[in-house]
Design a protein that fits this description.
Elements (H helix, E strand, L loop, with lengths): L17 E5 L23 E2 L2 E2 L4 E2 L9 E19 L10 E7 L7 H5 L4 E8 L5 E5 L5 E10 L3 E2 L1 E8 L11 E2 L8 E5 L23 E2 L9 E19 L10 E7 L8 E9 L5 E5 L8 E9 L3 E2 L1 E8 L2
Antiparallel strand pairs: 1-5, 2-3, 4-10, 5-8, 5-9, 5-11, 6-7, 6-9, 12-21, 13-15, 14-20, 15-18, 15-19, 15-21, 16-17, 16-19
């Protein structure tokens, strides 16, 4: 069974997430909650608001109530787990937190969100200082926003909202799109190796800034090759593949193969989309797919030969009716 932390972080800033409002951010800005990477800290680093923290920190409450932050998911989806990280907050962390979720379509204002129908996905739970708190989430409802409440005040370094993407694709009716993209609803469902970096990075939005923002495997010594499987946003016909090795200079694969399946790999017949094709280091490659690409598929296996890394994989096509 997949651990929920292996699923993409739907709230991540680099996936399009945003902290749209907060009750207070007197000591440290709310936007830090969804930054990529581990929180940093330098002791004795003071600004006009006190010690500088890589997180969200509210003032000390002198009245009843509690603090909260509203987060728009970069990719709407089904939430499978939440991580509340109080890294570096020791004498100023909140003793309890709660997480709620809602599905509000369109482009709602903070006021409209506050009036939305919220469902509790993580009940009020005890927190410790300088610690990651993992909370599995049950249910299969599609969500677009989450609300983090802390009781009564204090600091949280990061909020991670892991799950399966379920975006609204109706604006793309009749149009082509990247069916592998996380933002479209694609998901990496299997992978031979993710030693250096997570495989779902290859379908993340934007360009990889460095090697860690792509997918990179360990060096193989057994004569085999590495691979991953992408479940597409929906059943579709693929026409163009982009295989990007940007930033992978001495560790790019020598070649790539793309195989499609109309169903789960192993249960459906393979369709050759791209035969074994040479790759260059640090290069975005674009390949028109052959006549076999006219066959609808739901999954694509990406084989790299023999090992190495990819920055991004884009699979452009059209959804079937």
């Amino acid at each position: 069974m997949t651990r929920f932390t292996e699923l993409p972080d739907l709230a991540l800033r680099t996936h399009g997430g945003a902290v749209v409002a907060a009750s207070d951010e007197s000591f440290a800005e709310k936007e830090s909650l969804i930054r990529p990477g581990r929180p940093g800290f330098r002791a004795g680093t003071f600004g006009p608001k006190g010690q500088v923290y890589d997180g969200w920190e509210t003032r000390r409450r002198r009245a009843p109530g509690h603090d909260w932050a509203l987060v728009r998911l970069g990719v709407p989806g089904v939430i499978r787990g939440v991580v509340v990280d109080t890294a570096w907050f020791t004498g100023n962390y909140p003793p309890h937190a709660r997480v709620e979720a809602a599905c509000v379509e369109g482009h709602p204002s903070p006021e409209e969100l506050l009036a939305a129908d919220w469902a509790e996905i993580v009940p009020r739970s005890e927190l410790k200082g300088d610690a990651e708190h993992l909370f599995p989430v049950a249910g299969g409802e599609r969500r677009t926003h989450v609300r983090l409440s802390i009781f009564p005040d204090g600091g949280v370094a990061r909020l991670r909202v892991h799950g399966e993407p379920r975006p609204d694709l109706t604006p793309y009716d009749g149009l082509g799109l990247d069916l592998a993209a996380l933002a479209s609803g694609g998901l990496v469902t299997a992978c031979s190796d993710g030693f250096y970096s997570a495989p779902h990075n290859v379908i993340a939005p934007g360009l990889a800034r460095h090697q860690a923002e792509g997918w990179e495997t360990a060096r193989r010594r057994d004569g085999g090759n590495d691979w991953l499987v992408i479940r597409l946003a929906g059943r579709g016909v693929l026409r163009l593949a982009e295989i990007d090795t940007t930033n992978l200079i001495f560790n790019a694969p020598a070649a790539v193969t793309l195989t499609g399946f109309d169903g789960e790999p192993g249960a459906a017949a393979p369709v050759e989309l791209l035969p074994r094709t040479r790759l260059q280091p640090d290069t975005p490659h674009r390949f028109r797919l052959g006549a076999a690409a006219g066959v609808p598929v739901t999954h694509v296996r990406v084989d790299i030969h023999p090992d190495g890394g990819l920055a991004r994989v884009r699979l452009h096509g059209h959804l079937t009716p």
